[in-house]
Amino acid sequence: MKTRLFSYPSLAALALTLLVSSVYAYSRTGHQAQFSTLSHNVSGTATILDEDTIQINNFNYDGGGPAVYFYLGETNTQEDFVAGLQIGPLLTGTVYTNDTLVIDVPGSNPLDGYNAISVWCEDVDVNFGSGTFGSVVEYEVTFDATWSAQTHTNFPPNPHFSGLIGATHDDGYVMWQSGQLATAGIENMAETGSKSPLNTEINTEILAGTAYSQISGGGISLSPGVVSKTFSAHSAHGTVSLVSMIAPSPDWFVGVAGLELYKDGKWRGEVVVELPPYDAGTDSGVDFTSPNADTNPAESISLITGFPFTGDPPLGTFTFRLICENPPIGDINGDCRVDLLDLVEISYNWLLDCNQNPSAVECQ
Q1: How far is CA 45 from CA 86, 237, 273, in A?
Q2: Those residues with Cβ within 8 angstroms of residue 356's Cβ, 6 or more apart along the chain or in another chain
Q3: How far apart are CA 242 and CA 189, in angstroms?
Q4: pLDDT below 70 — which residues of the chain?
Q5: Using alpha carbons only, what angle is made at residue 150 by residues 144 and 156, rounded to the nearest 5 degrees?
Q6: 285-305 pLDDT, tens digit each
C-alpha cells in the first residue's frame, strides 16, 4: 500500500476549506434578482434562501399568456432561458398582486450554474420579465462642493448646485457621456436644475432591467457646502451615474458617468471622484448669467476647460463609501458578508508572510 504524504500548506489549506464549507452552507444565500417589467405587469424580487430555495417577494403578474412559469437561466438571455430550468407552479390564469411565493427547486445543488430568473412563456419562448442574481449593498455618496471665491477666479452671485439625480445600472444604460448628445433629461437638469424628465428616463431603464435603483438627493443651497445620500446597488448593476447642475449657469453641470462600484468580483470600499465642469451642449451662453440661447443643433456634452473656469481646480468631489457599520470578522472583500468569495481572497495569499517577504507585491 502506498502512503501519500501531504505537506503542511496542503493540509492547512484542506482544513480551512473544510471548515469554511461546513460553516457556510451556500455562498449565494441572500443574493437577489429584480424582475424587469417587459410584459403583463411583471415585477418583484427573487431572493436565494439556500441551495435549493428561492423566495419571490412583492410579485406582480396579470395572469395573461399561455404556459407561463418561472424559468432559471445560466445568464439573463433569451437563449439561456430557452435551454433553462422550469421551476414553481403554473402562473397562467392567476393574478398576483404584491404576493410572496416560496419555490423549492428539486435536485442536488440545483441552483448551481443558474444566475438568472424569468417569468417565461414557454409556448412561444417570450420573456415577460427577468433579472440576474447578485449581491445587494448600500452606499453613501457625499457631495463636497469646494467651489468658492477663494478657489475660482470667476465666481457668480448665489453659487449653488441642484439636487442630486442619478442611477445604479449596467453597461446597457448610458445616462450621459462626454462626446454624446444630452438626453432631454440631462438637458433639463443642466439648464434648470429639474430632476424631470431625467427621473422618468431612469425609471424606464429600471423597468427594462438595465438600471437597478434611482438616486435622488438634496442639493447645495450655497457653495461651498456638503450633502449626502444613501442608495442601493446590485452586483449585476454595479456602475453609478450621478449629476448636479452648476447654478447659475447656461447648461453646466458636474457628475460621474458609468463609475464602477463593483469591480473584479468585489465591491469597492471607497471611491473619491473629482468634479470638473461639463457643458451639456444645449445652450450657447458663455457666462454664468448669460440669457437663454438654445444651441441649434445641439452639440455633444464636453468638458469645460476655458472661460469662466480657465486654470481653475475641480468644483468638488463625490465620495462613494460602502456602508457596513458592523463588518463581520472574515469579510475580506468588503461586501459586508462572509462567504466563499472571501475564501478565494484568502487562498491567493495563503501563508504569505510580509515580515519575511516585505517586498512581495501583496505586501505593498
Answers
A1: 18, 15, 32
A2: none
A3: 11
A4: 1-25, 325-327, 333-335, 337, 339-341, 344-345, 348, 361-362, 364
A5: 85
A6: 999 999 999 999 999 999 999
Looking at 2.60.40.2130, 3.40.50.1000, 3.30.465.10, 2.60.120.200, the CATH number of the domain 136-322 comes to 2.60.40.2130
Listing DSSP states for 326-351 in one string gives: SPPTT--SSSS--SHHHHHHHHHTTT
Q: In this structure, are residues 322 and 272 in contact, taking their beta carbons and an 8 Å threshold? A: no
**Cβ atoms of residues 29 and 61 within 8 Å:** no
Whole-Å CA distances, 115 to 44, 77, 246, 259, 343:
17, 11, 41, 24, 21
Q: Which residues are paired to 120 by β-bridges? A: 69, 127
How is residue 205 written as a grid cell? 431603464
**Sign of the CA dihedral running 190, 193, 196, 200:** positive
Task: Indicate the pTM of the whole model.
Answer: 0.84
Each residue of 188-199: pLDDT tens digit? 999 999 999 999
Indicate left, alpha or beta for 83 from its phi (over 0: left) and psi (-120 to 50: alpha).
alpha
Cell for 131? 433579472
Q: Cα separation of 105 and 43, whole Å?
A: 21
Q: Are 343 and 21 in contact (CB under 8 A)?
A: no
The yes or no reply on domain 32-132 and CATH 1.10.1060 is: no
